[in-house]
Write a structure and sequence with these properties.
With 559 residues, the chain is an alpha/beta fold. The protein has three domains: 12-261, Rossmann fold; 273-343 and 470-557, Ribosomal Protein L25, Chain P, CATH 2.40.240; 355-461, Ribosomal Protein L25, Chain P (Beta Barrel), CATH 2.40.240. It contains 13 helices and 27 strands. The strands form seven sheets. Strands 12-25-26-27-23-24-13 form a seven-stranded mixed β-sheet, covered by helices on one side. Strand 2 (63-68), helix 3 (78-90) and strand 3 (99-101) form a beta-alpha-beta unit. The longest helix is centred in the N-terminal third of the chain and has 16 residues, at 44-59. Bound molecules: adenosine-5'-triphosphate and magnesium ion. Adenosine-5'-triphosphate binds at residues 35-37, 39, 45-46, 48-49, 232-233, 263-264, 271, 273.
């Protein structure tokens, strides 16, 4: 059976939480949040963050909020919000009634900004973006103070109010924190807190023409929600002093604490939203739910299970240093989970017709076949057998090598769950390709080996031609051919041209006729497959979830 995810893992974040609890910080509460920006669909990297935040809340009997971090209107939309809600739920997590939108805090954030102005900690700056960049300094050189830094509180309040009222053009003024232009940390050199941006917001419409910056909005949203541990990825490490500075100036008690962990990087995969958007918008894939996408919706359509994704996230754990996780680990987790759950069936992808000459015409037998060899509770089904069958093209060779234990001239093979058959003759087309085999069957072999004790080593799968269901089968493979496409600006040059192969005439056994989207199967000897959304009644479409074995490991040859 699949191992349940360890309910009480340990890592450096949990160590920090434990230590805080011992010191009774935050009155013994643990409150986390998952804060996606609704400017794209969430992916396997976000799933890591989801599992971490919700997992910690569950482990410490705390809470985890789902917060849409929607303070930058550009590119945000309700479609993305809905997808995020659906995907986090599908991953198996529940936020109860704690669904929040940072955009609901705009008025409160504005009030916080006013307070910073009143205490002399923020000022309206009228430098242009270019001028501001020039005066910021470098890693080795201090920045220059803005000539507007010493505006009076009164003047700042007046200008900030008028910024809100829409009196100024975009970019004419910003609100900046008054910290330290000589700080060795560039983030602390009077960072911008608010900017003017005439961009309609998907929730607040054109109510606002000024929007708070991430660094200002995020920590205060955490504080407003009573978050204790604000877990984020490493790229925010340099922003932590600013997080703390803002919170110290504006929040009296129970201040949230930011903790950074290494984001997930996955081999043969890109996880940057910008790049995923590019793949979708430029039609390199067929949408956010294309089964080759590392998005949660893509993985769901592909046939990955929430359990497999959660197991993967538990397996990789959390660390403080960036690294690249091998995508074969994810595929392994999917295989493990489906091995437990998937019904075994037979489907022929590249059909070759076989006629059993000594099997009576018009006769059909039904064999009862277990749905799962190790799990009798999953029941059984009747599979028809008749005179004309399909087998897999590469289960026959005209001139096979010695070690080939399948069908060839003079050879015998067992049809899985059915009889032993023997090759008799073949028919070729004008091009010289084998199009039909003639065989004979041994009627004594349905329930056991041949009576005369002769050995038949190979076992192949098959379907009865008259009962077969014609299926479209989509063979998916990795989207990129190189290990770290995310590290390449020209990542599109490394798309795998063979990432999708469509087989229009697979033949599936009769039991798959009315299968429904989302059902998962093991096609014996071939891999795990999932019924796609494009399926019509009587016309199934299957996606290959993952092959039975990791073929890339062999190709890479331990590189
Ligand atoms: P961007 O900043 O480009 O919009 P993002 O990937 O950071 O994209 P967010 O919506 O800000 O997207 O992310 C929501 C949460 O998920 C954040 O806490 C972020 O740190 C986390 N997250 C995003 N990508 C990963 C990843 N690859 N691994 C782990 N956590 C991630
Ligand atoms: Mg982000």
């Amino acid at each position: 059976m699949t191992q349940p995810v360890n309910p009480s893992p340990t890592d450096f974040i949990r160590d920090i939480i434990d230590e805080g609890l011992r010191e009774n910080k935050h009155e013994g509460r643990v409150a986390t949040r998952f804060p996606p920006e609704p400017n794209g669909y969430i992916h396997i990297g976000h799933a890591k963050s989801v599992c971490l935040n919700f997992g910690i809340a569950a482990q410490y009997q705390g809470t985890c909020n789902l917060r849409l971090d929607d303070t930058d209107p550009l590119g945000e939309s309700m479609e993305y919000v809905q997808s995020i809600i659906r995907d986090v739920r599908w991953l198996g997590f529940d936020w109860g009634d704690r669904l929040f939108y940072a955009s609901d805090y705009f008025e409160k954030l504005y009030a916080f900004a006013v307070e910073l102005i009143k205490t002399g900690n923020a000022y309206v700056c009228s430098l242009s973006a270019d001028e501001m960049r020039e005066s910021r300094g470098t890693f080795t050189e201090a920045g220059k103070e803005s000539p507007y830094r010493d505006r009076s509180v009164q003047e700042n309040l007046d200008l900030f109010t008028r910024m809100r009222q829409g009196e100024f053009a975009d970019g004419a003024h910003t609100l900046r924190a008054k910290i330290d232009m000589a700080s060795p940390n560039i983030v602390m050199r009077d960072p911008v807190l608010y900017r003017i941006k005439r961009e309609p917001h998907y929730r607040t419409g054109d109510q606002w023409v000024i929007y708070p910056m991430y660094d200002f909005a995020h920590c205060l949203s955490d504080a407003l929600e009573g978050i204790t541990h604000s877990i984020c990825t490493l790229e925010f490490e340099n922003n932590r002093p600013l997080y703390d500075w803002i919170v110290e100036k504006l929040v009296e008690k129970n201040r949230p604490r930011q903790i950074e962990f290494a984001r997930l990087n996955l081999s043969y995969t890109v996880l940057s939203k910008r790049r995923l958007i590019e793949l979708v918008k430029k039609n390199y894939v067929q949408g956010w739910d294309d089964p080759r996408m590392p998005t949660v919706t893509g993985m769901r359509r592909r046939g990955y299970t929430p359990e497999a994704i959660r197991n993967f996230c538990a397996e990789i754990g959390v660390a403080k240093n960036d690294n690249l996780i091998d995508v074969s680990l994810l595929e392994h987790c999917v295989r493990e989970d489906l091995n437990e759950k998937a019904t075994r069936v037979m489907c022929v992808l590249h059909p070759l017709k076989v006629v059993i000459d000594n099997y009576p015409e018009g006769r059909t037998e039904h064999f009862e076949i277990q749905n799962h060899p190790q799990r009798p509770e999953l029941g059984s089904r009747q599979v028809p057998f008749s005179r004309v069958l399909y087998i897999e093209r590469d289960d026959f060779m005209e001139d096979p090598p010695k070690k080939y234990h399948r069908l060839g001239p003079g050879r015998e093979v067992r049809l899985r769950n059915a009889y032993v058959i023997k090759y008799e003759s073949m028919i070729k087309n004008e091009a010289g390709e084998v199009v039909e085999l003639h065989c004979t069957y041994d009627p004594t072999t349905q329930n056991g080996p041949p009576a005369d004790g002769r050995k038949v080593q190979g076992v192949i799968h098959w379907v009865s031609a008259q009962d077969a269901v014609t299926a479209e089968v989509r063979l998916y493979d990795r989207l990129f051919t190189i290990q770290d496409p995310g590290g390449e600006e020209e990542f599109l040059q490394h798309l795998n041209p063979g990432s999708l192969e469509i087989l229009s005439t697979g033949y599936a056994e009769a039991s798959l006729k009315d299968t429904v989207p989302g059902s998962q199967y093991q096609f014996e000897r071939l891999g795990y497959f999932c019924v796609d959304l494009d399926t019509q009644p009587g016309k199934p479409v299957f996606n290959r979830v993952v092959a039975l074995r990791d073929s890339w490991a062999r190709i890479a040859g331990g590189k």
